[in-house]
Give the backbone structure.
Amino acid sequence: MPDALLALLVAGAVMVSLNAYVVLGGADFGGGVWDLLAAGPRRRRQRALIADAIGPIWEANHVWLILVVVLLFTCFPAVFSRVSVTLHIPLTLMLIGIVLRGSAFTFRTYDSQRDDVQRRWGAIFAGASIITPVLLGVSIGAIAAGRVPPVPTGSFVAAYVAPWLTPFPFSVGVLTLVLFAFLAAVYLTLESNDRDLQEDFRRRGLAAGVIAFGAAALVLALAQGEAPQVWQQLLGAPWAIVLHLATAIAAVSALWALWTRQWRLARAAAAAQVSCIVWGWGLAQYPYLLPPDLSYRDAAAAAVTLKLVLLVLAAGTFVLIPSLYYLFRIFKARPT
Amino acid sequence: MSDLLAARSQMAVSLAFHIVFAVIGIAMPVLMVVAERRWQTTGDPAYFELAKRWAKGTAILFAVGAVSGTILSFELGLLWPHFMRFAGPVIGMPFSLEGFAFFLEAIFLGIYLYGWDRISPRAHLLAGVIVALSGALSGIFVVIANAWMNTPTGFKLVNGQALDIDPLAAMANPAAFTQTLHMTLAAYAATGLAVAGIHAAILLKQPHNRFHRAALLVALLVGAPAAILQPISGDLSAKHVARHQPAKLAAMESRFETARGAPLVIGGWPDVEARTTRLAIEIPSALSFLAFGDPMAEVRGLDAVPRADWPNVPLVHLSFQVMVALGTYMALVSAWAGWLAFRKRDLAGRRKLLVLLAIGTPFGFIAVEAGWMVTEVGRQPWVIQGILRTADAVTPMPGLIVPFSLFTLLYLALAAAVVWLLRRQIIESPNLPEPQQANLLETGRRA
């Protein structure tokens, strides 16, 4: 196998893992958003439903992120080290968010069921569920904007703050948050047979879906100035029209399915819509992992490492897929 | 505080925090599965209660272990970008494998914790077994990567670049076997004896409590054999270090001069300026014999290494003494418990044994921390022994005292919360509703 193809395959695996993290783990963060925004007479039941939905699966969903990190430092070490240096601050804050979200959620489950105790952990859980996706999006936005140089230069602010503290990365952060909340609301309609709860999350899903259109438009508008390569590709690349069409069909289907209460269809369409957005970003950067200069070919580790990692991935997938299937079948089959 | 020191401190605090949860995450599922199996075969409800409570404890500790492990995987880049750039392609393999082991662990722990009523007892037990196995595997893969930092193999160093990379040879590095063996045994010994110690303390007050008797026996069953084997594994490790990292051994033993027939130095305080160890007990020729199997063998001292390349000798020596002393205590107490069990005596009725076990509750964890101090501080100033200096691996970002302080506060808060919750879960309140049941109650009340 030629080295470039090996590198492309591993880069594809990174994207697949990131896609899985967004579609699965993202919804767990979205659950935290709806925990914070729980309102109305069924507030407590909304929160209980979210906790039940996340409880058995969030740790497994979280491992996709670890896989992304490991694949990057093993196979594209230059990407990992450049990103870690320039985006130290948002990544550190995101880490703190990840830690607080996971631990507060678990502590809430196992601490006293008294209201004030539950509310205290709940506030941390929900707060962290909001900042983490925003910072994930900010980091991705800074990469897409080509702001991760080989060597940081200039003052502290120029080197470590300016690359991400601009409107475009934050618009990507907001879009990430809204999409995660959208996914969570759509998935939650399938977590309960209670009509009222389903309606609660249907309304939330519709609202988030509509806001997501706005957020996506904002990202595109800002991309023109701040992330020119991504902007040009999304407008002019031969695949762009297909991708936009697929995204649009998925997005409209998701909203329509929610509107007409076809929960399963809504879930599939929402996941497809978000996946299209993730891959749209990936393709728009192609062949660069870090625009404007570091392509997947130039960043790739030695071929022997890539081959072995691909072998591990193949063997691992063989074990992972049935295990994940078992997990989701136990906990996510239609409630009776 | 210099940025390098801040980065090293942040890494040290992160590792010291995570290792506690990693160790528990490896061993606790074994206790939980043994208890569940006993319940299934004997029908004794004490074991059921035990499995359930240990599962809850595991849930809390595993979650903290998972998130603190995530911090570490990012910190490899956030603090040591040049190290990862060099090492990633060489030693990324075990991390990739660890990724999948961690996946299995997380998936089947979710099934175990939330699946009591959803799958057959057999499938449930099997899920626990998979958690235990994949937990041990995760630990082994990560320690293999650390062993590579001590004895790097599988590449050629050309102008600061790693060429001719062979990731499999890197995984099969010389220190991998002794280090993974030592760490895996440590996980079972530390956790098993800590749990045994807690229940021994309670048994001193409530000698006839069946629940705590059952807990003590299961915990000893897991912890004691590992604690008894650990000195043998430690001996293998030390022999290995003597051959491959002489400077580390010299610091462990506070040996300043190369000599034949070197004595074993027990205790004492290294005076680095005077190049001597004060107030130590010395056993003549014992170090040469222990390290090389020959009482007249030459043991290299710190004088074989440039002064600038010495690790922090007092810290390494002290940590090593602490680890060995606590490990010896644990092995002896475990051996006594084993002897009593072999003679079919009632362990839970021996007050003296219970007192010794209760005293030893934190010893395993202190020994684990001390052992990591030995292996990590003892390797300094290198991050990859002889290849890359820690000072050359650190991130160029200034102001690292800020993230160091932030993470230290975060760990303190997490530690406080965990201690609070465990007290509540395992010791204080026996009849709490399950999470699912709690929600059912909630729904029921509303409906």
Remarks:
- The CA atoms of residues 13 and 313 of chain A lie 8 Å apart.
